[in-house]
UniProtKB/TrEMBL annotation:
InterPro entries: Asp_de-COase-like_dom_sf (IPR009010), Formate_DH_Act (IPR048158), MoPterin_dinucl-bd_dom (IPR006657), Mopterin_OxRdtase (IPR006656). Belongs to the prokaryotic molybdopterin-containing oxidoreductase family. GO terms for biological process: anaerobic respiration. It comes from Kocuria soli. Residues 728-846 form the Molybdopterin dinucleotide-binding domain. Pfam families: Molybdopterin, Molydop_binding. It comes from the Bacteria. It is found in: Cell envelope. NCBIfam families: formate_DH_Act. Its cofactor is [4Fe-4S] cluster. This is Formate dehydrogenase.
Length: 898
């Protein structure tokens, strides 16, 4: 997610949360959305840990916590930034950890200017493109050891996302440093200045969080961090689905590094993923911009394989990411076998190239321009589950063909006959030329394979029953589709068909014709291709070579099939293991349960405390040892000073615990990698009810915009027409329903528990708008109108923010309009606009503005007219809210910064 320490997943195991002394759950309703994992929070609390829930709503998580802290949705950077300021100003940071293990002592270029200097912008901003030139954010050097080229500088400059994958981007090899931390250009001093205005009073003004709640939170995390205690943070899409989503997580990572909570038992940051294998779908990706194992996708300017390798990593940089050539060649060998040879760049030219971002929303825009002929929908329901549902459905009407694979006849398969636009008259079934194919899919109990869940843990599931009728697993569907396409192309001499024809598509079949999922896992694990071990599985990614002698479909999964054993199926009961539980499933990489665990010991290799002992240096054995797999070269002694000319793992010093970073340190300041700033700064959401109290710059200047007539934005506060959409709304999930409802609204038992769409509002808002409990409400955003039953509750409180009373409306997002599910209802996602985080291209669906009024929404054309009337009253145009720079004096200050 673009964090400076992450490898695309949670840093700890869920089970390790039980070892925390304090747990802050922010951006998640963990008890309801991740009830199985929440057992470890309950266990930690039973052991005496303090649990704090920061969320706009009081939920079941709040009820299980020691304190609920209500917050205005989208203001988290201010709260977290104020905690950083509190830690720094009160000298509560873990000094030995920070000075040894982070980039706090490093000096930043003299050309760098902060948001405090430029009223909300960092140096290098180009208002014409909305992008930053990040050269001024670099480390300062006293020699010619400059930074290596950065991946992602494609023709459009927007193919970033997780483009640095498992490791940070290359940086200057020998940055200048001041170990006293007094130089004003040190990361430490820049950090102090940057967050100096993030105070408890600013938190109260911006977030609506009382000073008392802030002090309780600050006291809780600082008293429970240090040598003998650790604090854990947990988040989910309540943090990620914002235009600042990646920076929310970055802010938490800075705080955790300052407190010394990274790489230690009961610490870290737990990324709670929304599905059983969402983690797996990014490891072996369904994302457009990465390859398996978080290898970057090539861009059009990388003509040769060497160009590609040079853009990922340098052999001179520190850490294991320098071995990306071995991971890449092994991947190409796994895909194309004998067709992958040195003479043809290991078949590198078979991989498509990025010309820019090609995510789901960019593809949607291309659909609207009739540039996309066909579309596969697999395990998704964009007709009701993606932002701006109307635009999603209209986009599908521009296709020539659409394939939907699902368990049920979801709305993305039926929009053409009973969607909202059919009812409103905006589309007529007889005019839609899209040919829709529905393929019934097998459920998770009807197929075998792995789930990779939120803690990077692969767990094998065995097939329980045979899928009924024509239902197929994904593996069988795509295997058969691949065979059919290859058969049709068998006689082709067109070079563009070689990538398909040369694929190693030779999986053994079971008696029922299904390919062996275990054989696929073995291919992903990798094997030796030559020598005396030819054909044997690899045991570790360190065995991968860049000379074509090994193959492996995902380097971070290497070891899951070591010795020919499916370790994802390991099932030793917890009571028969230690606290690491290393024989239950298999965690990537290397079955390591806590990432960067070298940081659990001090610079001399001794545990920070006996209570928080994890791995340590065994002087007699000359190696790192402990219950977890050491995340460090196992024989690298604590005091090791590497050869200055060394690169890769050999360049790691004895106190470089962040082994995938190109400087071995945890990044308080990100000199590269983040496209919207080296430090998180608070910006308001695309639609906001208040003025940014910190900077003249209102929303993120680098946010990805989709200025269209069908994606209008509410005016910002203070602009004409903002009073037309006076209320905030935020979306959330229910235990009884599941995401877009494809697995739950078709089940009568679950449908009975949550039978209809509703909105949660405060009694104060209900009185203000004349809304009756359990009556109907109509909600109108700049894009759509929906209806919902009214749930008046004290779980959603009104907040005093910036001198105004702010009302927040809570909307579950599980329903959709159609005739096939047991229960239907209007979709909350129809209200949302499309504006994206520029790092990872995730939509901002946790903050929006709307009006709410009593009664049911109008039907037919009247519904469309109502939305249009609101748009006219607000004076909306395509340009409304889509200004890049909101400080009119910017150009003047660029010429004269004084």
């Amino acid at each position: 997610m673009g964090t400076s320490f992450g490898r695309g997943g949670a840093t700890q195991s869920l089970q390790d949360m039980a070892n925390a002394d304090c747990i802050v759950i922010q951006g998640s309703n963990m008890a309801e959305c991740h009830p199985v994992g929440f057992q470890w929070v309950a266990e930690a609390k039973a052991r005496g840990a303090r649990v704090i829930h920061v969320d706009p709503r009081f939920t079941r998580t709040s009820a299980s916590a020691d304190r609920h802290v209500p917050i205005r949705a989208g203001s988290d950077v201010v709260l977290l930034g104020a905690l950083i300021n509190h830690v720094l100003q009160n000298d509560l940071w873990f000094k030995e950890y920070v000075t040894s293990y982070t980039n706090a002592p490093f000096l930043i270029s003299d050309d760098f200017k902060d948001t405090e200097d430029l009223d909300g912008l960092f140096s290098g901003y180009d208002p014409e493109t909305g992008h930053y030139d990040r050269s001024s954010w670099a480390y300062k050097t006293d020699d010619d050891a400059g930074a290596e080229p950065e991946h992602g500088a494609s023709a459009s400059g927007r193919a970033e996302g997780e483009s640095h994958g498992s490791g940070g981007p290359p940086v200057a090899k020998r940055p200048m440093r001041d170990d006293t931390l007094q130089d004003p250009r040190t990361v430490f001093q820049i950090l102090k200045r940057h967050y100096s205005r993030y105070t408890p009073e600013m938190v109260q003004e911006t977030c609506g969080v009382s000073v008392e709640d802030f002090e309780y939170l600050a006291r809780s995390i600082t008293e429970n961090s240090g040598r003998d205690r650790t604090t854990c943070f947990a988040y989910a899409v309540g943090w990620t689905q914002h235009t600042l989503g990646a920076q929310f997580i970055r802010t938490a990572s800075i705080l955790q590094l300052l407190l010394g909570n990274m790489g230690r038992p009961g610490g870290g940051i737990m990324a709670l993923r929304g599905h059983a294998s969402i983690q797996g779908s990014t490891d072996i990706p369904t994302l457009f911009n990465i390859l398996p194992g978080y290898l970057p996708m090539p861009t059009v300017d990388m003509e040769t394989f060497q160009d590609y390798l040079d853009s990922i990593a340098s052999k001179q940089q520190k850490g294991f990411w320098a071995n990306a050539d071995a991971y890449s060649v092994s991947l190409l060998k796994a895909w194309w076998g004998e067709a992958s040879q040195p003479e043809n760049n290991w078949a590198y030219d078979y991989i498509p190239r990025l010309t820019g971002p090609h995510g789901t929303y960019q593809t949607l825009e291309a659909m609207m321009r009739d540039e996309v002929e066909g579309y596969f929908i697999l395990g998704q329901n964009p007709a009701v589950g993606s932002a701006n549902g109307r635009m999603q459905r209209m986009g599908m009407s521009h296709l020539k063909w659409l394939v939907v694979r699902d368990l049920n006849m979801i709305e993305s398969a039926t929009w053409w006959k009973d969607g909202p636009e059919i009812a409103s008259g905006e589309m007529r079934t007889e005019d839609i030329e899209t040919e829709v194919f529905f393929f019934p899919a097998a459920t998770h109990v009807e197929k075998s394979g792995t789930f990779t869940q939120t803690q990077r843990l692969l767990q094998w599931r065995h097939q329980a029953v045979t899928p009924p009728g024509d239902c197929q697993s994904e593996l069988k569907f795509f295997h058969d589709l691949g065979q059919r396409i290859r058969a049709k192309l068998a006689d082709s001499e067109d070079p563009r068909d070689r990538p398909l024809l040369d694929l190693t598509w030779d999986y053994p079949l079971h008696d029922d014709g299904d390919p062996s999922s275990e054989a696929v896992l073995a291919e992903i694990n990798g094997r030796f291709l030559t020598g005396e071990d030819a054909g044997k599985p690899l045991s570790t990614f360190n065995q991968m070579k860049p000379d074509g002698s090994t193959s492996g479909g995902c380097w971070i999964y290497t070891g899951v099939y070591a010795d020919g054993i499916n370790h994802a199926a390991d099932r030793m009961p917890g009571q028969e293991q230690d606290q690491i539980a290393s024989k239950w499933g298999w965690a990537w990489p290397a079955n390591r349960r806590i990432l960067y665990n070298r940081a659990s010991a001090d610079p001399e290799g001794k545990p920070w405390s006996e209570r928080k002992k994890l791995i340590w240096w065994d002087q007699d054995a000359g190696r790192w040892t402990g219950p977890d797999v050491p995340d460090f070269p196992v024989d690298r002694a604590p005091g090791t000073v590497p050869d200055p000319d060394a690169g890769g793992p050999a360049a790691l010093a004895g106190d470089d615990p962040f082994i995938m970073q190109s400087d071995g340190k945890g990044w308080l300041f990100a000199p590269k990698g983040m496209v919207d700033g080296p430090l998180p700064a608070h910006y308001e959401a695309q639609e906001s009810p208040v003025v940014n109290p910190l900077y003249p710059q209102q929303p993120s200047p680098t946010r990805e915009l989709f200025p269209r007539g069908d994606n209008l934005t509410a005016p910002r506060y203070g602009q004409a027409g903002n009073e037309v959409y006076p209320y905030m709304f935020t979306t959330y999930r229910l235990t009884e329903q599941h995401t877009a409802g494809g697995m739950s609204r078709w089940l009568p038992y679950l449908a009975e528990l949550q039978p209809e769409m509703f909105c949660e509002i405060s009694a104060e808002l209900a009185e203000e708008r004349g809304l009756e409990p359990y009556g109907w409400a109509t909600l109108v955003s700049p894009r759509a109108v929906i209806e919902a039953k009214v749930l008046v509750t004290d779980r959603v409180v009104s907040l005093d923010v910036a001198g105004r009373r702010i009302h927040q409306i809570g909307l579950p997002y599980h329903w959709g309009v159609g005739s096939d599910a047991v229960v239907t209802g209007d979709s909350a996602n129809d209200l949302m606009g499309i504006t994206l985080d520029p790092n990872v291209h995730i939509q901002e669906s946790k903050v929006g503005m709307c009006d709410i009024r009593p009664g049911r929404r109008p039907r037919g054309e009247a519904a469309t007219r109502l939305v249009s009337e609101y748009q006219q009253r607000a004076g909306l145009t395509v340009e409304t809210g889509n200004e890049r720079v909101t400080d009119p004096d910017l150009e003047l200050r660029k010429e004269d910064p004084s």
